[in-house]
Write a structure and sequence with these properties.
heterodimer, A: alpha+beta, 5-stranded antiparallel beta sheet, 10 strands, 17% helix, 32% strand, B: alpha/beta, 13 helices, globular
């Protein structure tokens, strides 16, 4: 069982702050050598944490779709262009006249990679496969490809898009699974 | 448009520069550029500061950098274009002079990337290229390694490019970085070293990737009139600049074996300069990853699409003595890749 993300984060910060406090207490300044012990660094006493809030008001239908087990794209009623990720405006028609259409989910793998070196907020996952597939409708989707063995992934293989719950965070998202042939 | 020439250049040592702040780092390059041109601060009319930023404690670094270098009242204008930030600063400085807005402009490219830990740096990167919510947030697409890995996989599948051929790019660039006193990595590597290095995002391994680098560069550009008045007889004339980009959503790219932006920008530059790819003898290209240099050979027209990774690299066609000598500075792979570091005159 992996340590929960929040706990890992808290531990990471707690250790850093503890070390910083010890240095200040001992020396009167938050100054310590860098990792190599080569140069003096002032360690920022004022912490800044960033967590953004992103407006999804105009594309909330997409997220409602995930709850229904469906993946939606938008399609401009005037020019017929598909938009995935979905967007509310068609810049070419200067219109905001979109149909919400369910994605067929059938696609062909265009390319992929295996993420071995992960960012901190992804470090609790095993190595994951990021893939781009061309959907039957003609647009591309990027998502994880759910496979047991990344060595069996091939460019050109058929994949299907499905709605899944991303654990341990527990939010709904979409992933590819290989189509057995 | 007026003719514009580069009359002074400067560059800091690249690497993990925990010995300096961003202001001090920029000043190393600016001082060298001023001395190279034989000018003082009063000769500079405007400074353009290229910095992608966010990884340094000064989130708005242009003004502090400008003040430290002694130009408080001149500009600055901050420019950001992700990994092309330094080149973008040069393009703006060029246009400031070409348009007649000023006669002498300074372009500074500076990046301090090691003031946050690597995990945070990856988190910033994920918000700094591509489309954040639909790519990094949902799928942890490290930027830029995952993106170039997606290109590498497609290039290998379509054209048979091999991991060994990718490794040859690093081997070549390290050969020159080893002789560059300002490079971050002054040593040579073998194909074996590259293949054995730890996986970052398959098929790219550690040595297929450029590093997280602190560095600065500066260039002073001037109009033809100003150059004559200054009695400078050896300016480097800027014949042409081409500039283009592509979609932020990687899913909306036309294919994953070429960079459309490179092709468009190259065509613009070739057309303006009145030359063809075969006329180019020396080139500095964006080798943030080994696959990027392979695609650059093709997208710049040095070799046809799909052939950059084959005999072209194996026979040394991109090395001295070949068709075109590429990245003799050591490139971003060997020299380091500070996002804002000016590249055009590396």
């Amino acid at each position: 069982m992996v340590m929960s993300l929040e706990a890992r984060y808290e531990e990471f910060w707690r250790q850093s702050i503890k070390q910083l406090n010890e240095v200040v207490k001992a020396t009167g300044l938050p100054i310590a050598p860098d990792e190599k012990g080569q140069y003096s660094l002032w360690y920022d006493v004022r912490e800044m944490r960033l967590r953004f809030s992103i407006s999804v008001e105009r594309i909330k239908r997409f997220f409602e779709g995930l709850r229904e087990g469906k993946v939606y794209a938008t399609r401009c009623r005037r020019c017929g262009r598909y938009y995935f990720p979905p967007q509310a405006d068609c810049p070419y028609c200067k219109a905001s006249d979109m149909d919400w259409v369910e994605v067929s989910g059938e696609g062909e793998l265009l390319t992929y990679t295996v993420i071995n070196t992960k960012p901190l907020t992804y470090s609790h996952y095993p190595d994951y496969v990021v893939a781009i597939a061309r959907m039957r409708e003609g647009f591309n989707v990027l998502a994880w490809l759910r496979v047991d063995d990344p060595k069996r992934v091939r460019v050109g293989m058929r994949v299907r898009l499905q709605v899944v719950r991303r654990e341990p965070e527990g939010y709904l998202t979409y992933e590819f699974v290989p189509v057995e042939q | 448009m007026r003719k514009v020439g580069i009359i002074g250049v400067g560059q800091s040592v690249f690497g993990v520069r925990n010995d300096v702040t961003i202001q001090e780092l920029a000043w190393e390059a600016v001082k060298e550029a001023l001395e190279d041109a034989g000018l003082t601060q009063k000769d500079i009319e405007i400074s353009i500061v290229g910095s992608a930023g966010t990884r340094t404690y000064e989130l708005y670094p242009a003004v502090p950098v400008n003040e430290y270098s002694g130009f408080s009242e001149k500009g600055p204008l901050r420019v950001e274009a992700a990994c092309a930030t330094g080149s973008a600063a040069l393009a703006v400085a060029y246009n400031m002079v070409a348009s007649g807005f000023v006669d002498i402009a300074l372009a500074i490219g500076v990046e301090k990337m090691n003031e946050v830990d690597t995990a945070t740096s990856l988190a910033v990167g994920g918000r700094g290229g591509g489309n954040y919510l639909w790519e990094y947030h949902f799928y942890g697409t490290t930027f830029p390694p995952a993106y170039y890995a997606l290109y590498a996989t497609a290039h290998m599948a379509k054209f048979g490019t091999t991991e060994e051929q990718l490794a040859l790019v690093r081997v070549k660039n390290q050969k020159y970085a080893a002789r560059n006193p300002k490079a971050q990595f002054q040593f040579e590597v073998t194909v074996e070293d590259v293949l054995k290095s730890r996986p970052i995002t398959w098929p790219l391994k550690l040595y297929d990737c450029s590093a997280i680098t602190d560095g600065a560069a500066a260039a002073i550009v001037a109009s033809e009139d100003a150059i004559r008045k200054l009695h400078i007889d050896t300016p480097v004339w800027i014949e042409a600049i081409g500039y283009a980009s592509d979609t932020s959503n990687i899913t909306r790219r036309e294919d994953y074996v070429s960079l459309k932006a490179t092709k468009i920008a190259a065509q613009m530059a070739y057309k303006k300069a009145g030359i063809e790819p075969k006329d180019v003898e020396v080139a500095e290209v964006h080798d943030c990853f080994t696959i990027a240099e392979i695609m650059a050979y093709e997208d710049l027209g040095f070799v046809e699409k799909g052939r950059g990774g084959g005999k072209f690299i194996e026979e040394g066609q991109s090395d001295i003595g070949g068709k075109v000598a590429v990245n003799l500075s050591g490139g971003l792979l060997g020299k380091g890749h500070p996002l804002g570091g000016l590249r055009a005159w590396r």
